[in-house]
UniProtKB/TrEMBL annotation:
Protein name: Osmotically inducible protein OsmC
InterPro entries xref list: KH_dom-like_a/b, OsmC/Ohr_fam, OsmC/Ohrsf, OsmC_Ohr_Peroxiredoxin, Peroxiredoxin_OsmC
Gene Ontology BP annotations: response to oxidative stress
Gene3D superfamilies in the record: 3.30.300.20
A GO molecular-function descriptor: peroxidase activity
Source species of the chain: Sphingobium jiangsuense
A Pfam family reported for this protein in Swiss-Prot or TrEMBL: OsmC
Amino acid sequence: MTTNSASARYEGLGKDGKGHIWTKSGVLDAQPYGFGTRFEGEPGTNPEELIAAAHAACFTMALSFALAGAGHSDGQLDTEARVTLEKDGDSFTVTRSDLKLTARVPGIDEETFASLASGAKAGCPISKLLNCEISLDYELKD
């Protein structure tokens, strides 16, 4: 079992409040977030950006291990995740995460790659965590 941690502080309330996020690893160290970073393009991060980063990283690692398990020893995987936040009554809901993958895996055929990528999409821990639609669009390059 692996446990990771992060913490957040929000000073002030609502739109006027300002938050900061810390991770145990130090990757985020008082990283600002708030209404402005979430909805108005101000510098800083927001929860959906962090979810997108986690999903892209998790899916890409899962696919890397699936490819290695299938006997492939070389390749490059580049994934972008786009997480969508939509108004849902009086609150908001993450409605989807769209994965866009560009891959180079010498010697793999399209059918095998599609199967492994689909399995990684369904099986990565962050995909399992998300309660939303997840799409995968990929390009397999020579």
